Amino acid sequence: DADGMDTDPPSAGLQDAFGGHALPSVATIRNDLIKAVAELSFCELASSAQWAAELSVALPSTEMDDATVPPVSSYNNIKSAKMYSSLMLAKSYFNMREYSRAAYVLQHIKDLHTHQAALFLRLYSLYLAGEKRKDEEAMEVTDPVQKCQVKNAELKTIEAQLAGLHEKRLLNGLNLYLYGIALRGLELKEEARRVLVQAVHVFPCNWSAWLDIIAISSDLNDVTDVRADLHLPDHWMVLFFQAALHIELQRNQEARDLYVALKRHFPESSYILSQVAACDYNMRNFDASQASFDEMRKKDPYKLASLDTYSNILYVKEQSAALSHLARQAVRIDKYTPEACCIIGNYYSLKGEHEKSVTYFQRALSLNRNFTPAWILMGHEFMEMKNTPSAIDAYRTAVNINQRDYRAWYGLGQTYELLNLHFYALFYYKRAMTLRPEDARMWCAMAQCYDSMGRKVEALKCYEKAHRCGDRERMALPRLARLHQELGDRTQAAAHYNQMLLQGSQQRGVWHSKTGSGLSNEAVEALRFLMVFYREEGNLAQCEAFASQLLDTSGPEKDEAKAMLRDLRTSSDGPSANLLTGLGRE
Fold it and tell me: Phi and psi at residue 72, in whole multiples of 5°?
């Protein structure tokens, strides 16, 4: 383990997160997961079943690995051969994506609530049939407003059937989950969340229910308080929920710490590795994130989920060969997935082929209209193509899908700033900042808007906050210095320029030009200002020191430095005499 804590017992890092108690034994966790996989698979909840199965396999080996697994299937309690046959027929239709047929097969069974698996399969088939029709209708509508108004027509039917059974407490965990997502679809989000919390109490290993609780809390904009307000079950699954919640809140270090602790208990989990990589990516620790993704790909070489984020890292680091290799691998694994399309889109974007890139992001969205990363990346491409209306549309759609994705808000801000609509840009940058309050880029973006609007004091405060937040792009200090100059505070401007140059001496190359030839414009600007400032202040030694550094430049500032040094020689026989003698030989 990278943190050097391999000697700790597997659950040592989790006790505080789990109410001060150790996690259950490996055998107990595996038993929970095996039962969950059987139940979820039988009820066709493939995503949750896969998540639980992968976690079960990721557990360390124990002496109990060869123990006999008890039968756990949902049809064990079905005594009627006719009921069993109907259920199997419904499942076969479901697997062929004939959802209406699957629902119809189970429609006329009496006392369906006494057979919870059959009840779930019937109503879940009805739900997916409605979702399928909704997607088809949405594809036929061109107006974005009308597209958002297309609803699943089966939701009211499902809600009506489950509401009465819910009042009588006749629903199992999976039917409670289905009732919750039906209520969410009907925009009854508070009630939906209450029902979903009941669902995870009854059936804690349904990961989809936990994710829906986070998503609804995000929609209600009270995700910050959800951990304290909800009465969650005393179950080890709460740890995964808590870690996912930390990521949603952009508490990436807390999330990473929790995932690293969980990794000791689930050492072979590719899911946990991908989450650690996502945390590092969100904190912009690209090297660490790339290392985690590489480790994940060694464990699970055919996994495509989350590799779109990996491709973003390769794009940012301009590793075109690695990105090309990743794109070819994604095509070989399954090119008709949103992740594969986004990887290929990033590859073409890095090559500067933005039209091709947009084509692949659109292909990703034809496969999954709610795949937020594709909307955001497509917005970036439209920005590169100077197609601001399409960029705005892409970013707005991303915001509608996930209001807590700061990248979409930030993209909207950038688009409106390009249009010189600074008031609108400021609004969107503020939304991004509330989601990423420790990200210096958000504060710098807001500061630029305030500066363009002539609100220098507010711009100053934003740049100061950006500087306190780390400011990896080194934007804040030079702009703080300029603003202090404009506001007439030359002493404070000098302090910021000095601090900026000190950073450059401590971190070599920070204030050199990107081409590597000489100093950057900001460094030259700082040296020139400080040379003049210390001359006016009468500090001739400092003035000479900065003038001497300007001699390394090739612009007009070099001539100004020479003139300043000559002026110093005429006004004093100080230490500049020897240096100036050499100037005549150039």
Answer: -130, 10
